[in-house]
Write a structure and sequence with these properties.
It is a single chain. The protein is an alpha/beta fold. The chain folds into two domains: 3-69, 2-Layer Sandwich (GMP Synthetase, Chain A, domain 3); 80-322, P-loop containing nucleotide triphosphate hydrolases (Rossmann fold, 3-Layer(aba) Sandwich). It is built from eleven helices and 14 strands. It has a seven-stranded parallel beta sheet, with helices on both faces. A three-stranded mixed beta sheet has the order 1-2-3, covered by helices on one side. α4 (93-106) packs across α11 and α6 packs across α7. The longest helix has 17 residues, at 222-238. The chain starts with a helix and ends with a helix.
Length: 325
């Protein structure tokens, strides 16, 4: 087929089709046309093919075959994971994880929350989503939406309230995998509330879904700091950067006279962070308003008071750290 014949066939095509032609040839009354379909959806590609076929059929062309070429879509950015851990229970780690997630959403990030504390889940209560059950879509769990803009998954969403989860390590690990592999849609950051200690769940997390960074929560007293140091050591050995340490329950303001006291001490977590050359992210006060709001499923970070600001300050440092990746 001569170049003049090819140009003659091209001339039959409307201008908006002609500018997308990658190649065109005619053999045995069959026109084979390759078009650039970049930027078109399915309906647009179908319309392009129809217009091209109708334009080329006839006058020596008995059959038209159209192939569509499009630039490969850029791969989706990898979802970041921030683990929130502690060396022992009772330091308010789950409360910090919830409010960190909420504060990060308020700062403009798309954040999901995974309650990896399989045996002691609390995120459903803290987010006010108790009694809701996730559905499955194409073998993936669909996270529960909360009114705070943070979708979440917790064992509390999967078992009846008050039911004990008496599972061995492998079963608990599988549950964690299902929650992390859920259909998180456009979430680009997962905050994972780890159980206290350094056990099977932590190892599964490190092996299967290595976090980009970890936030360590401790109270100021020496016993909690000793256990927090163990948690820091676990992440250090696994090559997970420690974003920083949060000192929780630091400072109690008397609601009657306003005097601030430190029933658990003060500054211990900051000192421990400095000793291990890790950043100190800030203090969260020992405040009854945090306890009352948390029990009511209303994260303090969703509000505008001084409690919200304490969590916002921590979230700002975590966000700044994420921006360096």
């Amino acid at each position: 087929m001569s170049s003049e014949d090819v140009e003659g066939l091209k001339a039959r095509l409307p201008a908006h089709v002609r500018e997308r032609v990658q190649s065109l040839r005619l053999a045995d009354a069959r026109a084979i046309l390759v078009l650039d379909a970049s930027g078109l959806d399915a309906a647009g590609r179908e319309m392009l093919e129809t217009v091209a076929t109708e334009a080329l059929t006839g006058a020596g062309v008995a059959e038209v075959r159209v192939a569509m070429m499009a630039d490969r879509a850029a791969p989706a950015p990898r979802r970041r994971i921030v683990a929130v851990g502690s060396g022992k229970g009772g330091v308010g780690k789950s409360t910090v994880a919830t409010n960190l997630a909420v504060a990060l959403v308020r700062s403009g990030r798309r954040v999901g929350l995974v309650d990896a504390d399989i045996y002691g889940p609390s995120q459903a209560r803290l987010l006010g989503t108790e009694g809701q059950k996730p559905i499955a879509r194409e073998k993936q769990l669909v996270p529960i939406e909360s009114r705070w803009g943070v979708p979440a998954l917790s064992m509390a969403h999967l078992v009846e309230p008050g039911q004990a989860v008496a599972w061995r390590g492998p079963m608990a690990g599988n549950a964690l995998v299902q929650m992390l592999d859920a259909d998180w849609s456009d979430v680009d950051l997962l905050v994972v509330d780890l159980p206290p200690g350094t056990g099977d769940i932590q190892l599964t997390m490190l092996q299967r879904f290595k976090p980009d960074g970890a936030v360590i929560v401790s109270t100021p007293q020496d016993l909690a700091l000793i256990d927090a140091t163990r948690a820091v050591s676990l992440f250090d050995k696994a090559g997970v950067p420690v974003i920083g340490v949060v000192e929780n329950m630091a400072g109690y303001a008397c609601p009657h006279c306003g005097e601030v006291s430190d029933p658990f001490g003060r500054g211990g977590a900051e000192t421990a962070a400095a000793t291990q050359s890790h950043p100190f992210l800030g203090r969260i006060p020992l405040d009854i308003a945090i306890r009352l709001d948390s029990d009511a499923g209303t994260p303090p970070a969703a509000g505008d008071g001084p409690q919200a600001q304490a969590f916002a300050d921590v979230a700002a440092q975590v966000s700044a750290w994420l921006d360096t990746l």
